[in-house]
Amino acid sequence: MNDPLTPLLPTSADGDRPWLIWYAPEERIELTGRVLAMWSSKTAAFLDAEAGPAPLVHCALEPHWRTVTWWLGTWQAGGGVLDAGADETSTAVAPAVSVAFSPDRLHQDADVQALVARASLALRWPGALPPLVSDGVADLMAHPDSFPALPAAPGAPALIEATGAPGGPGSGRSLDRGALVDSLPPATGPAGATPGTPGAVLIRHETMPAAMRAILAAWRDGRAAVLLAPGADDALATAAARQEGAA
């Protein structure tokens, strides 16, 4: 089956240059394609072990480098992402997995729940986890660095996103992999550049679907994605753009 999404994603062969650069106040994290592929594989293996292939994953994680790896891992496991803002009636079944930065954002009907430490260099959830909730960082580490990508069923959702106001509930729009790729922003600036060279793309969005579309578009165009933390001020955006040569 022709999968238009997988060719855009980093692999273990993409080793030496940054694909994603995360900026938050007093923080800069640079991830090569190989590192992203490692985290994606660990996440996919966790999802496959805990929920089986092709899970629907409720993702209540705002833009963050860790969020990117959960989306990538979900797609690598053949599954789809349910945007946390989408109305629950957007899907006929409850998500198999729910992942969040805080316990109150977990989907209570998901069979598998995981909490992710927001701190970029944290190795585990800070403090005690709620009963039966997995650690969305530490519990991934036991899984292999490589995981074969599982196919998505034809027409299965890659993303179910909210269509209401940002930050509030709304009806959901379901996109399969082809429709998701078709919805990416058009190419801008110098195309064909190698990730890590001048021509990186500065990404400043408050919602993850918008941020992930911009990231995928940057990778499609052979450019590094410079992701700003939600609420980043103009000074940080200016500094990141200058440091990374980003537009």
From TrEMBL:
Bias (Low complexity): 185-200
Region (Disordered): 158-200
Full protein name: TIGR03089 family protein
Lineage start: Bacteria, Bacillati, Actinomycetota, Actinomycetes, Actinomycetales
Organism: Actinomyces marmotae
InterPro entries: Rv3268
